[in-house]
Design a protein that fits this description.
This protein is an alpha/beta fold. It has a single domain, classed as 2-Layer Sandwich (Signal recognition particle alu RNA binding heterodimer, srp9/1). Helix content is 16%, strand content 39%. It contains three helices and six strands; from the N terminus they run βαβββαβαβ. It has a six-stranded mixed sheet with strand order 1-4-3-2-5-6.
C-alpha cells in the first residue's frame, strides 16, 4: 500500500471517501482509494498519519476537502477466542456529518 501526503491529496480534491481505521492500542490511521488501490494518508515524513483519538484525526484532516468519511473498527475479540482476525467484518460508521 502506497502513501499519499495531505498536499498530494489536496491536488486530487474533492476526495470521494476517507476511511479512518481504529486500531488496537488507541491508534487511528486514515486511507483513501485512488486508481484502483488503497493509499495510506502520510505525514510530512512519509510515515502513516497517526492520531490517538478520532477527534485528533479529524483535526489533522481538516485541510482536505472530502465528500464522505467512515470509521472502520475491527474487534480484537475474534483473535482472543482463537478465530482468524479477518473472519468478521469491520464495524463501519458514517461520520461525515461530524466532519468539522
Amino acid at each position: 500500500m502506497s502513501h499519499l501526503s495531505i498536499n498530494q491529496l489536496k491536488a486530487r480534491e474533492p476526495i470521494d471517501k476517507i476511511k479512518i481505521h481504529s486500531l488496537e492500542g488507541g491508534i487511528y490511521i486514515a486511507t483513501v482509494y485512488f486508481d484502483g488501490a488503497e493509499h495510506t494518508i502520510a505525514d510530512d515524513h512519509g510515515k502513516p498519519l497517526k492520531a490517538h483519538c478520532l477527534s485528533e484525526m479529524k483535526e489533522l484532516l481538516k485541510r482536505v476537502n472530502y465528500r464522505t468519511a467512515e470509521l472502520h473498527h475491527r474487534s480484537a475479540y475474534d483473535e482472543m477466542v482463537g478465530l482468524e482476525q479477518n473472519t468478521a467484518d469491520a464495524m463501519v460508521l458514517d461520520i461525515t456529518a461530524a466532519k468539522h
